Amino acid sequence: MRWLFFLLLAANLAAFALAQFGDVTGGESHVSRPLRAEQIRLVSPEALPPLQAAAAKAPAACLEWGSFTSTELPRAEAAIERIGLGDRVSSRQLEDNAGYWVYIPPLITQEDAEKKIGELKDLGVSEYFLIQDHPKWKYAISLGIFRSEESAKKFHADLVDKGVRSAVVGKRDQLVKLSLLVLRDPDNALTERMVELKQEFPGTELRATACAEPGGG
Question: How far apart are CA 65 and CA 73, in angstroms?
Answer without folding.
Answer: 11
